[in-house]
Amino acid sequence: MLDWTDRHCRYFHRLLSRRARLYTEMVTTGALLHGDVARHLRLDEAEHPVALQLGGSEPADLAHCARLGEEWGYDEINLNCGCPSERVQRGAFGACLMAEPQLVADGVKAMVDAVGIPVTVKHRIGIDRGEDYGFVRDFVGTVSEAGCNTFIVHARNAWLKGLSPKENRDIPPLRYELVHRLKRDFPRLSIVINGGLKTTAQVGEQLALLDGAMLGREAYHNPWWLAEWDRAFFGLPEEPARTREWVEEEMLRYMEREARAHGTHWHAIARHMMGLRHGLPGARRWRQVWSDHRMKALPPAEVAAIAHAPVSSAEPAHAA
């Protein structure tokens, strides 16, 4: 979810679900060691519970960055061992680390020793075309001995050559049964499933067998789905006030605060809202208005008014 689940996206998603655990985009250890720490780690108190996902392989660097995450207030440190992109591989992190379970274990141990918050790992069920269950079983076994108790398992292999990151989310087949088998073999561990889940019913089926489910792109593109989760998965009562219009109004207030506090332009925030009215009449026009670069000079409240205004045949194309 690189460049997707930034702090503005997470604030938006928190308006939709009070209880779902939010994850940052992957932040590399190099970005924190040599870059702008505040830009990468700044968060809003409303985001909790929220996890910092790190990309890296050097134990000392991971420990240092985990400490930074704890100092900035994150509730969990998550190590990414699932990203298949070649750029990530060149940095010696992501899915290629599954071939080096002891190195991952060393990194996890260093982080566990450095912080007082949970350290978790996100990974695939295998790399390239190998289909041996023993590979992922041994990976989980080795890393769990270093102090990791939660594994978030994308139920596809990562093909390190020949497929783009997008193709790696679609072409390698989903094999949920391997994730279920991990839970049977490691009953004391928390096993969370990821990959291909698009409906509340599908998530419910997995939660009957596992400890959690992680949702990514489907939740991003159809964010109103999150509004069901508190009731469906956490047993919380409905919130009558939580409507799409209320969420948009809250985001307008957030845009104004961000502009005053950090000089953030509303366009950088609004891009994460594009799916809010997915499936509703007028959604296409609403989306076009909020994403129209010609609107950038207007205050966000005016953009919202245009997005909701009735359409006449005399109106310009950008508002149609």
State the gist of this model.
With 320 residues, this protein is an alpha/beta fold.
Tally of helical segments: 16
Distance between the termini: 31 Å
Largest sheet: 8 strands, parallel
Structural class: alpha/beta
Helix content: 40-55%
Corresponding CATH architecture of the largest domain: Alpha-Beta Barrel
Strand count: 8
Shape: globular
Q: How many separate domains make up the residues? A: 2
Strand fraction band?
A: 5-15%
Stretches where pLDDT is under 50 for at least 5 consecutive residues are 312-320
> What integer value in Å does the Rg equal?
21 Å
The CATH topology of the largest domain is: TIM Barrel
- Can you tell me the CATH class of the largest domain? Alpha Beta
Assign the CATH superfamily of the largest domain. Aldolase class I
The SSE order reads: HEEHHEHEHHEHEHHEHEHHHHHH
What value does the average pLDDT take?
Answer: 93
Binding site for FMN: 53, 122, 154, 194-196, 216-217
Cofactor: FMN
Site (Interacts with tRNA): 80, 166, 169, 284, 287
Family: Belongs to the Dus family. DusA subfamily. Belongs to the dus family.
Walk me through the structure:
This protein has about 325 residues and is of the alpha/beta class. The protein has 2 domains: about 5-230, Aldolase class I (TIM Barrel); about 245-320, no CATH class. The chain contains 16 helices and 8 strands. The protein has helices at about 5-15, 30-35, 35-40, 60-70, 85-90, 100-115, 135-145, 165-170, 175-185, 200-205, 215-220, 230-235, 245-260, 265-270, 285-290, 300-310, and strands spanning about 20-25, 25-30, 50-55, 75-80, 120-125, 150-160, 190-195, 210-215. Strands 1, 2, 3, 4, 5, 6, 7 and 8 form an 8-stranded parallel beta sheet that branches. Helix 7 (about 135-145) links the parallel strand 5 (about 120-125) and strand 6. Helix 4 (about 60-70) runs parallel beside helix 6 (about 100-115) and helix 6 (about 100-115) runs parallel beside helix 7. The protein is globular, with a radius of gyration of 21 Å. It starts with 6 loop residues before the first helix and ends in a 12-residue tail after the last helix. The model is unreliable at about 310-320 (pLDDT under 50).
